[in-house]
Amino acid sequence: MKFEEKVKKLLDEALEADNSLFLIDFSIGQGNVIKVVIDGDNGVSINDCISVSRAIEHNLDREEEDFSLEVTSYGISLPLRVPRQYVKNIGRILKVELTDGTKLEGEVLNATDQEVVMAYQVREPKPIGKGKITVTKEQIIALSNIVEAKVMIKF
Asked: Any idea where the Ribosome maturation factor RimP N-terminal domain is (predicted)?
């Protein structure tokens, strides 16, 4: 079995052991530098990173193959990359840019592997008289139509 296949198998086993964790990125670079980025349905603790790291490192033989290993959590300020992250962020506010250039900021009401349902507010003309009113709208957005989505951190 190739080194990369062995590492990926060990990584998959570590993530299966704690199914609240999921993979965002995995790569093996020049000089066998292994980089693993994980996220979790309930966030990622240092202990989560340690357990994934140990599950990989303790099952590889440095006599056979020299390597370095880095296991990190996905930063909250980074754009969402996988569908499971949308599910994780139900109830939070996202700032979303769509393929047609539209930008929305709203609450995630629901999410699946294919789409996200968001509620957002817009200003529209009053039905009668002058002026505008704030209206809450819901929109179903296919994940394939999202260029970038970031969680907005509110204090």
From this structure: 20-76
